[in-house]
Amino acid sequence: MCTQCSVGCVNGTCRKDNGHCIDGCKATFFGKLCDKSCSANCQTDICDRDTGICEGGCMNANFHDSKCKGPKTNTLFDFWRMVWQEKSGKIVMLTNLIENEKPKCDQYWPDVGQEKDFGSLRVTVENEKEYAFFFERTLQLTNKKTKETRKILQFHFTMWTDHGTPDPVQLMLFHRNVKDAKTDLTGPPVIHCAAGIGRTGTFIALDTLHEYGDKTGKIDVFEYVIKMRKDRMNMIQTLVMYVCFRYYVINDSIYIDELYTAS
């Protein structure tokens, strides 16, 4: 039985016995048959032919944090490649793996004491601490090619459902734990929920305004939300998220001299 060569084959030529592309894959394809498309999150159109890892790295945020969707099967390699490329020492996870019986995010880390490979990167969980409303995991990320290892701290908030509102005090304590944790890496933290907009946007806003207010003594909640939404629609997705966010900023800003919140 004869089959047509994949449209991803360079020059449209492939072997008759197995369909493998003779001259390799076109820029936007990968796989032995060049029948898989590179992720839309690749910084360039080129990805590794075998693994699909973006050659030029992944797209990331315009803010001081790297925001993204919760990793799924087809983006796990891209996710860890981004963490490595950006030299991120912290990952903030704001979703559960399953919510309302629907999968929201793949588990992109192994169990404690285990290791898992993602292309040329290996992830090992060295330690896991469970608190009332979040987990703190210590991960080791190893580049198998260069043998370089890095320590990554993952903070996993478990009490914030999709489109819902967290307890402001719990969120405040969680945020302080993230901020107080020390890392030797200089890159921005990676922040994600499921879709990468509502919960992610809320956390990025409170983190950024907290830092800005600490430096300048004043903040404008409403103006910053508008700025975020110019970069990506629906950041801070619902009214209750916005109200919760304002509550947090006000109650955690005793040291700020001036507080501007437009209504």
UniProtKB/TrEMBL annotation:
InterPro entries: Prot-tyrosine_phosphatase-like (IPR029021), Protein-Tyr_Phosphatase (IPR050348), PTP_cat (IPR000242), Tyr_Pase_AS (IPR016130), Tyr_Pase_cat (IPR003595), Tyr_Pase_dom (IPR000387). Residues 172-243 form the Tyrosine specific protein phosphatases domain. Pfam families: Y_phosphatase (PF00102). Residues 59-252 form the Tyrosine-protein phosphatase domain. PANTHER family: RECEPTOR-TYPE TYROSINE-PROTEIN PHOSPHATASE, TYROSINE-PROTEIN PHOSPHATASE 1. This is Uncharacterized protein.
